[in-house]
Amino acid sequence: MPSTSSPTRVQSRVAVIGGGISGLAAAHQLRKLDPTLDVTVYESASRLGGVIKTTEKDGFLIEGAADNFITTSPTAIELCKDLGLGDELIQTNSGGGGAMVVSHGKLEPIPPGFMVMAPSRIWPILSTKILSPMGKLRSGLELFVPRKKAEDDESLRSFICRRFGKEMFERLVQPLVGGIYTADPTRLSVAATMPRFLDMERDHGSLIRGMMAGRRKKTPDAEGRGGARYSQFMTLRGGMSRLIETLGNSLPTDHVHLNSRIEKISKVANGWSITHADGQETHADAVVMAAPANHAGEMLREVDAPMAQRLSDIEYASCAVVSLAFRRDQIRTPINSFGFVVPHIENHMILSCSFSSEKYAGRAPEGTVLMRVFIGGALQAGLLRLPDSQLTELAHWELAKLMDIEGEPVLRHITRQSHAMPQYHVGHKQRIAEINERLSEHPTLSLAGSSLSGVGVPGCIESGQKAATRIVEALKKSSENSRPTVSRREDAVKTQWSVVDARGVAS
Per-residue pLDDT averaged across 396-425, rounded? Predict the structure, then answer.
């Protein structure tokens, strides 16, 4: 009897443009959802990972960007376990925690229970040295501030000043949020960055009431100190680059192209044409665009001009990360936190400082402390015009003054993150909605990256995974719609043998 098996499925080719964490997560998810896909990653730089880079130097483990990820979303943990990195996950060191803030030239602990934009406990706010008596009184009056009736987008500065007053904003909220987004708070969108606080205002009429209601649902030690909830963060024993390396190694070597800049993509009858910087063209059935929004906009100009313009409208900030290490006996100020933030009103030239070796084990040799100092951002962009040597000296000078440090660092290292942090300005959610509306007209094109809906590692991973799911569903639907039922010749043969079989059964 002739074979009646269906024709071999043609392998679909998917191009992932951008080899940062979002693009790598997309490539991994594509292969996981459909192992038959031919997935190729194109990265313009000489290495994968984008801003994520771990450097080992003189016994120190130095992170150039994110040094951990939050675990309130399981996305990053699940990916690490899926890649076989579960045993390498580590939590923050016990016994420390919390964050400090510079207040009138001195380091003060952030009030316990204060979480980024609002307090969940009254007494710590009343007893803190950070706020003046009038500032404390105005903050307490938040309980009586009416809800905002209009639903238009609002800047972070406007929102906090409206509810808590100017002092709370300048002394606590601005430095904490600035440490996350390196942004100008007068332009930063609350709806795009901290939507849960808008929900609190709507549901409880007050952020304090909303925070206290949430606190009653938590265990007593869930919010011990103020600032970031460090117990909710994890990293990898060998640094964040372990995640990048493992993702890269999970892809076939000949399907990862470094130093491969893409100039543009074009829609063609049977998919997409990808034009490389050297003029060569590559065909793909689908594309995941995981490049920064401004570069993505340039590449998509001929595909969809309105969508490309919306992407290009997303602005970015830059910063420098200066890592300095000292012997512990050089530091006279007690280290009893994981770092500190610096309000813009204090007129210092750094944004924040993270005590890397206090947060995680294996970051520095015994008897030394590794610190990461952040400089620049939207509010102090001009400082980044300084050469590396001066930025390093600036960081050293600021630390020595704030922490009473004697002598020279035992290690210096600097990483520049140029145009690396997307700015979620007022109107960002509407802009993303318009991009997604345009994107619906291109089923086999997906977007991923921090410029869309999340600047943290879990948010980037999730955006890549969602982009991959969209592509797999679109290719499946396209395949089903275009699949021929069966050729006429095959149909005739099947009919003939069906008759023979029927006769055989009848006899």
Answer: 97
